[in-house]
Design a protein that fits this description.
By secondary structure, the chain is mostly beta strands. Helix content is about 5%, strand content about 55%. The strands form 7 sheets. It has a 22-stranded antiparallel β-barrel. A 5-stranded mixed beta sheet has the order 8-13-14-11-12. It has a 4-stranded antiparallel beta sheet with strand order 3-2-5-6, with no helix packed on it. It has 5 helices and 40 strands. It has 2 domains: about 90 residues, Immunoglobulin-like; about 600 residues, Beta Barrel (Maltoporin, Chain A), CATH 2.40.170.20.
């Protein structure tokens, strides 16, 4: 339902050639390739904008006389040119920027880390890449699934990294935790992220051995950096096969305010696309987002982000385990508020502070039974960076998280399962550049949990060495703790934190337009939650006796140079993972792990047709599952997973307004992917345990939208 909503801001960037502007053109490099995100402005004023995905820019100015227009982009020499604004009402320019140098000089610790950014030159992905990957459906987490190390778990939708479950990846926004980053989901159906990728200027995705600044994640972290101050006032409206959306932005001298809202419903989409779900109530929802940015002093920036969502849906679900069909109704509401302040304190000190609040409630009606779960999180964080000298940086800070959980169940009686946890943490990290080619980082994190009544100390160590003009090798080690899941803590608050250890080694070759990366890793799990019965309510049935391990190799290749107006990347992962946890009878490969994962993403701008085309192919080898009709444990495997997704974006004008026509098709070839099976709890009269396959809710999904910029 949120599929296209999250892609709209990107599409509006493509259409940002408004006829009302006076100054327009393109920003290119010396090879005539567009410089997406380049800053274009009139010196001494606040008139300007950023170049879109095709290098196009346009803005309006009230200035008169001779002015100087400038264009800047990281890794390129600034461009300046005089303009006479009195001579004409319309100025069209081609601004060509020259690179500052062919090599990436600075060594950077990158073991286990992928960064998507619009602010740095040498990054693996940009936010534009996230928004234009068709298989991602405009979802940040969906785009991350095309990177190596991530498993394809089509029935869930969360990010599963290097043998870890979905809950082992934690999400942050501007360094502040998001306790409910995903939309609510029905059983055996995928969810998606709550946030549009175009709300952010960058995303740090660490697949292992991440910084001591982050905690409470056994496998990985995703930290999304929100946009800075907007420089152009604009509004838009979009009409889609899944609803409507509108947005507006207001700018001042040192501040900006953006507001967007949408109503989405899959009623029409469910008619267009053949469904494999018996819907009682088509999914529908209302969303609203606001962003306020204010510059303070010379270096300070205050940000406020807020979002609200309410959604409802219903379906008939065949509960294979009990052998009955259940009517399930879901109603959920979520509010997230985040405000941060960053700035310099003198020449050598930087402060980062923030407050965040997340409220989430999910109400399930299961026939005559009801389950209502309310989660609240409040976080306060204060951090400092001290630049001791040109080679040494010390980063330290503290954060406090208050988390409350309350589940009310009406099922043959009324039950309540509440708990509250206060998590107090402190971290410190010292980075030292021994030479221009060698850098090391030493850190530690201390955490105390009031619910688990314990304290943990985790060391982190990483280093990188530059092996050539474009290549480097990185190493990273660390220990990580995470509190057990809420479904366990509500019954057994005496449990200890789960633990993992990471070792990662990376070799990367990177130029401005090509990247090759190979990474090997080892992970060891201990103190995982284990129980004998998935429906156990007795605290004594739970323990920390579980363990596991994962090791693998990840490969990544990206090329934006070989073919004209073309960009593509290839990701491949091999993994060997085993666990003895939950109600497993022995150590085995978890049900969500595929030994081989492959993603191929191809993008090309068809200049003659004013169309941007994207194609994604995804493959995952078979996954294990337990078939009670066969001897042994985890004794069967699914078929391999295949998917081809396509998107086409056509630039046009409607009523003299720049507009976009966007078509997206997922599972273009109609592959019959099966993610696993649900089995009955008891055999039938013939002694056979009946089963039903777990599949996608649709065979093929096609979505069409029209967006108009005002």
């Amino acid at each position: 339902m949120k599929t296209v909503i999250c892609t709209l801001p990107f599409l509006l960037l493509l259409a940002n050639l408004s006829a009302q502007v006076a100054i327009s053109g393109r920003v290119l490099d010396q090879k005539q390739m567009p410089l997406t995100g380049a800053n274009v402005f009139l010196q001494g004023s606040y008139d300007g904008t950023t170049a879109d995905s095709l290098g196009n820019f346009s803005f309006k100015s009230k200035l008169k006389g001779t002015q100087i227009i400038s264009a800047t982009f990281i890794g390129y020499k600034p461009f300046s040119r005089k303009l006479n604004l009195d001579s004409t009402k319309t100025i069209v320019l081609n601004l060509v920027l020259e690179e500052t140098g062919g090599q990436i000089d600075e060594v950077v610790i990158n073991a286990g880390a992928f960064e998507a950014s619009d602010e740095k030159k040498a990054v693996i992905m940009r936010m534009f890449d996230v928004a234009t990957t068709p298989s991602a459906q405009g979802d940040i987490f969906g785009a991350l699934c095309t990177l190596p190390g991530v498993q394809k778990v089509g029935e869930d939708g969360r990010v599963f990294v290097r043998g870890g479950e979905g809950y082992e990846t934690k999400t942050f926004m501007d360094g502040m935790q998001v306790s409910s980053p995903y939309m609510s989901k029905m059983p055996d159906m995928p969810t998606r992220g709550r946030f549009s990728p175009m709300l952010f200027s960058g995303t740090l995705f660490s697949t292992g051995a991440y910084s001591a600044e982050y905690g409470q994640a056994l496998s990985s972290i995703v930290d999304m950096k929100t946009n800075s101050i907007e420089t152009e006032e604009k509004s838009s409206i979009s009409i889609m096969t899944v609803g409507v959306m509108g947005s507006t932005t207001k700018c001042w001298k040192k501040a900006s305010f953006s507001l967007s809202g949408d109503y989405v419903t899959s009623g029409l989409s469910n008619v267009i696309n053949k469904q494999q779900v018996d819907w009682i109530k088509n999914p529908a929802g209302v969303d609203g987002t606001l962003m306020f940015r204010q510059k303070t002093g010379k270096t300070g920036l205050f940000k406020v982000f807020g979002t609200f969502n309410n959604s409802a849906s219903g379906l008939n679900y065949l509960n294979t385990q009990s052998g009955v069909e259940q009517a399930i109704l879901l109603n959920s509401s979520n509010v997230y508020l985040n405000n941060t302040y960053n700035g310099m304190l003198g020449e050598k000190w930087m402060i980062k502070s923030g407050l965040a609040w997340n409220w989430d409630i999910q109400k399930f009606d299961l026939d005559k039974d009801q389950v209502a779960t309310t989660q609240r999180m409040t976080q306060a964080k204060l951090g400092f960076s001290h630049f001791l000298n040109e080679k040494t940086e010390l980063k330290f800070g503290t954060d406090w998280v208050n988390f409350s959980y309350d589940q009310k169940i009406r099922m043959n009686g009324n039950y309540r399962l509440p708990f509250i946890n206060n998590q107090l943490s402190a971290f410190a990290e010292l980075e030292y550049k021994l030479t221009k080619k060698f850098v090391t980082r030493l850190g530690a994190r201390l955490e105390n949990s009031s619910l688990l009544n314990g304290t943990t100390l985790t060391p982190r160590l990483s280093a990188a060495y530059k092996t050539g003009n474009h290549s480097q090798v990185s190493l990273a080690f660390g220990q990580f703790y995470q509190n057990p899941g809420n479904d366990y803590l509500k019954f057994a608050p005496q449990l200890k934190p789960e633990k993992s250890g990471h070792a990662v080694m990376t070799w990367q070759y990177q130029t401005d337009l090509k990247t090759f990366r190979v990474e090997g890793y080892l992970k060891k799990y201990s103190d995982l939650v284990k129980f004998t019965n998935p429906l156990a309510t007795n605290p004594l049935d739970y323990s920390n006796a579980g363990s596991g391990h994962a090791e693998g190799i990840d490969l990544f290749w990206r090329d934006k140079e070989t073919f004209d107006l073309t960009d593509y990347w290839i990701s491949y992962s091999w993994i060997n993972a085993r666990r003895d946890y939950k109600d497993y009878q022995m150590s085995a490969t978890p049900t969500y792990v595929s030994e081989h994962n492959l993603s191929v993403v191809y993008k090309r701008f068809l200049e003659k047709f004013r169309t941007y085309a994207s194609l994604t192919y995804s493959f995952a080898s078979s996954r294990p599952y337990h078939d009670p009709n066969l001897p042994g444990f985890m004794n069967a495997k699914t078929q391999s997973y295949n998917d081809i997704s396509l998107s086409l974006t056509y630039l046009m004008k409607i009523f003299r307004r720049q507009s976009v026509l966007h078509l997206m098709v997922n599972n273009l070839a109609g592959f019959d992917n099966v993610y696993g099976y649900n089995f009955s709890a008891k055999p039938n009269a013939a002694g056979y345990y009946e089963s039903t396959p777990i599949k996608s809710p649709f065979v093929r999904q096609t979505i069409l939208l029209i967006s108009i910029m005002f």
